[in-house]
Write a structure and sequence with these properties.
Helices cover 22% and strands 31% of the residues. It is an alpha/beta fold.
Length: 192
């Protein structure tokens, strides 16, 4: 992560907090549901793992954060959420994440370019389409790619500090294997 000792962190759309940001860094976790919507889809009617219970500190849409979360964090995490968003939602989430930062704060964005999403949805026709308006419950089609993300960053006044290609495990849908491609981007407020 891009976490320095003493930094404050907010984990937006924390899901199940698979990165362990709350436990390891004291992050404030935010999601649309108490146990995170991604977990609800997989564990309906079953007992939740104790490790995952209680990870969400604020239950709200990350595009509409309470004022008490604005202007107070050194690092905002957007891990595996942007690939679910249409353009309007993506821009709103980046703007909202930017509002959580102190002047010298940075946003860590991690997302796959999931080429399997079209076939995946054919395989899972009963899955709910949206977590909330504009935020799909699956990876959107066409997939979010690096060029589109860079455009979103420019439009919201965010400047890239660090960029890296990431490896994601390949996805198999039926007899097709899709490569695991993804990106990690650290951004900060543009001074211009």
């Amino acid at each position: 992560t891009h976490h320095r000792p003493g930094d404050t962190m907010i984990n937006l759309a924390c899901g199940t907090d698979d990165g362990g940001y709350k436990e390891r860094y004291g992050a404030v976790n935010v999601d649309v549901g108490e146990y995170a919507s991604s977990v609800d889809n997989f564990y309906q009617g079953t007992e939740m793992s104790p490790f995952r219970q209680g990870v969400v500190d604020y239950v709200c849409d990350i595009r509409e954060l309470p004022d008490e979360l604005k202007g107070k964090f050194d690092c905002a995490v957007l891990g595996d959420v942007m690939e679910h968003c249409n353009t309007e939602a993506g821009l709103a989430i980046l703007s909202s994440a930017k509002e959580t930062l102190v002047d010298t704060g940075r946003i860590m964005i991690i997302f796959p370019e999931d080429l399997s999403c079209k076939d995946y949805m054919k395989r899972n026709p009963d899955q709910e389409e949206f977590y909330s308006p504009g935020i799909y419950s699956y990876h959107r089609q066409p997939p979010l790619d690096k060029e589109e993300m860079v455009g979103w960053l420019e439009e919201t006044g965010l400047r890239i500090v660090l960029y890296m290609d990431l490896w994601y495990p390949p996805t198999t849908v039926g007899n097709k294997i899709y490569p695991g491609v993804g990106y990690g981007i650290i951004v900060e407020k543009d001074a211009t």
